[in-house]
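Could you please consider the sequence and fold appended to this message?
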Amino acid sequence: MAITDREIARRLAPPKTDTDRMAMKARVSEAAVELGQLVHQLMPNSTEEGQVLEHLEAAVARAHVGIDRSYSPPGEPHRSITDLSLDNFSRQDLPIPDQQ
């Protein structure tokens, strides 16, 4: 199936959340959609296009998670990623890139 600009926008759209985080995630997604559409224009229907979009999706998802993890509601002190508990963290949680 050939990919379209609409499909790119759908795949990189921010998930629904509260208004503050939604605005931050939308900024990330809008930038990613712009890059995704540029890649689509420059190398349509190529293997590389598919790979770039796949990795772009993963990068956007990680950015959205990063926003969730570091978000502090207005009026509360900013918390950093180091403030979070790593009790339930394991290497299994990390994405492993394809080895080629």
Summary: The two ends are 25 Å apart (CA to CA).
